[in-house]
TrEMBL record:
Pfam family, one: Lipase_3
Biological source species: Caenorhabditis angaria
Annotated coiled-coil segments of the chain: none
Name of the protein in its database record: Fungal lipase-type domain-containing protein
InterPro entries: AB_hydrolase_fold, Fungal_lipase-type
GO BP, sorted A to Z: lipid metabolic process
Length: 331
């Protein structure tokens, strides 16, 4: 009971601080985090963007370590094998792959495959979309070079990184749309889980947003969880995303380099949406995590200077890419 009271008090404090911060910024001043006052100067740490005013999900849409550790990690590991059903047969037997998509997703350079799949679980009453991350140096190089091609308009809600948007559309038009519409027709009340790792996390963000924009799913019925997601869109996209999704988490392992690229540039350039879940440790069972109250500020993983490629492939205590390639055996 005492713990519950502490959590409720903490959420109240964050909510109260967010209101004061938002009012402060609306008046053209900065919010000083260091002392919790508007316009205080000199200030060690300031907030100048409204999306960085402290805010956390409500209790009904809280992050659950067990859910991510036992289900989300399995779906992402499964995306790194051409036979994802093997992982589900081993770890989530009621989840059945519906459609596998494996298409070229590079508009400009040499062929680079993007892999994703849809699945359905009639026991958990869930539909699933999972996107694989970057594979190979060719795709990584093209992804980085395509950053200079700029951003693409995302409906009326800002812009997203062109490479990620194109990659999603290639997969959407490569069989995903038809299959997801069929599943939605068959199971109209099922919850939709959308997930992905690395580049796949960015595509997952766009996919979840896209199916809401076209009216196929209600945002309140979507759970979006990504692992090591790079910045995906600009400030306006992040603002729309945060106002639309109640359940959206970006899980970041310790010094994972991918969460910090492409770089944030200029006043309204690429900007992370909420909510970052930062494990500043090896992510084994029982390790603590921090829910970052800012969207993309100088807290949580953005404090890291020494970034790591190795941390990008170790999530929840395992090298989940190798684990997936092995068929997700019991550990």
């Amino acid at each position: 009971m005492m713990i519950l009271h502490v959590l409720i008090f903490a959420l109240f404090v964050v909510s109260s601080s967010a209101d004061k911060c938002a009012d402060c910024l609306a008046n053209g001043k900065h919010w000083c985090v260091t002392v919790g006052q508007c316009g205080f100067s000199p200030c060690l740490t300031t907030i100048t963007k409204a999306l960085n005013c402290p805010s956390l999900p409500d209790k009904a849409h809280a992050y659950n370590d067990t859910f991510a550790r036992t289900k989300i990690i399995v779906t992402n590991a499964a995306s790194y094998t051409m036979t994802p059903q093997k992982c589900f047969d081993s770890q989530m037997s009621t989840m059945k792959v519906s459609k596998i998509i494996n298409v070229n997703c590079d508009r400009y350079g040499p062929e680079a495959k993007c892999f994703s799949f849809t699945a359905v679980d009639t026991v958990q009453k869930v539909l699933l979309i999972t996107f694989r991350g970057t594979i190979g140096n060719t795709q990584l190089t093209e992804e980085i070079l395509d950053f200079f091609h700029g951003k693409k308009q995302f409906f009326d809600s800002g812009n997203v990184f062109e490479y990620f948007y194109d990659a999603f559309l290639f997969q959407w038009n490569g069989g995903m749309q038809q299959d997801l519409r069929k599943l939605k027709y068959q199971y109209p009340d099922y919850e939709l889980w959308v997930t992905g790792h690395s580049m796949g996390g960015a595509i997952a963000s766009i996919a979840a947003s896209y199916v809401v924009k076209i009216g196929l799913f209600n945002a309140d019925n979507i759970k979006l969880i990504t692992l090591g997601q790079p910045r995906t869109g600009d400030y306006e996209y992040a603002k729309w995303h945060d106002a639309t999704f109640k359940y959206s988490f970006r899980v970041v392992h310790h010094r994972d380099i991918a969460a910090h690229i492409p770089p944030m540039e200029g006043q309204d350039e690429l900007f992370h949406h909420r909510t970052e879940v930062w494990y500043n440790n090896n992510m084994t069972i029982g390790q603590p995590y921090e829910l970052c109250a800012e969207a993309d500020g100088l807290y949580c993983s953005n404090q890291q200077v020494d970034l790591s490629q190795e941390d990008h492939y170790y999530y929840y205590g395992i090298h989940f890419v190798d684990w997936g390639l092995a068929g997700c055996p019991n550990i």
